[in-house]
What we know:
It holds the Pfam family PilZ. This is PilZ domain-containing protein. This protein folds into two domains: 101 residues, Beta Barrel (Thrombin, subunit H); 140 residues, Thrombin, subunit H (Beta Barrel), CATH 2.40.10. The chain starts with a helix and ends with a helix. By secondary structure, the chain is an alpha+beta fold.
Amino acid sequence: MANEQQPMKLYGSKEGYDADVMINSKAVLSKDDFVATGVLTYALGDIIEVELPEFDVFRLGDKLKMTVYTKSGLFVWETTVVAKEQGSLIVLNPPENRRKFTEKREFPRVEVTKGGLLLGLQDVNKRNKHHLDNPIAISIKNISINGVGFTVDDNAMVEKIIQKHSQLEVELNLGFSMACTMEVVRKEKTNMGFYYGASYLNVPDEKANALRGFILKNQIETYFIQKREVQIKKAMEKKTVANP
């Protein structure tokens, strides 16, 4: 009995566990009067995947209690089902739980194909502001909750004045319009011109939830696509071994 109680001391008491400690751990999901046990197979940012035989009992939007038994202890939190596929559920990893764990990347970045407009910019010294009478199109390559990676369609016009630490006034088209200010934190030369990485300096409060929802949706879709590709590859390798 003492060994069973010991992990409970870790629940809610510390922060800084490696997020990988949860991978391949036993996970118990409960709702109403139903309890199912599975294996936690993925955890990054706002989402967690649990593989379990009874996945079809759960519905999108179900509120659950989740208990995870890791080698570092027992963790319990409330969560919600946000996606499901054959054999697995995707549930939210709430902020209060994320604070207990550290990840290699603080905010997961997802690849997208979206666009936007560069409306104006301020130079590195924060002295000269340039308003563009004719906004320049940008192509968004990836996005996270704290920034975007993009290219500028007309590099010849702006490549000299957009430098690291330049501030940009942009309008992002993510299926909804979001005007914001960003600071360039990375600039790289590519075969197609320059690639820029920028972090948000401000995001309108009324757009914050829409941005998080957009990233969450794309993260889930990207994960499922990658998972299917891995499964197909493994099946083909297995078939090759069986039929050389």
